[in-house]
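Just wondering, does anyone understand what follows?

——
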Amino acid sequence: MKKIVCICGNGLGSSFLLEMNVKAVLKDMGVSGVEVEHSDMGSAYQGMADVIVCAADLENNIKRFGETISLKNIMDKTELKEKIIAFMNK
């Protein structure tokens, strides 16, 4: 996995929070060399990342752009970590 993009509706608050949480989780896992950035849904395109992280309410709109990790609670780092591990073990 080389790139993760975190997406929310406007690409400002929620996606930036997700980006910070993904970076913290990857650091906690000892994973390095993964580019993490955030964006808005309107700028998304297919193949923009190895995996896209978003809130569950956006999943149906985002999954057409690639592998997607959707979160029920974007504040929950435990849920995020479990889903990143599951994605990495595919």
The mean pLDDT is 96.
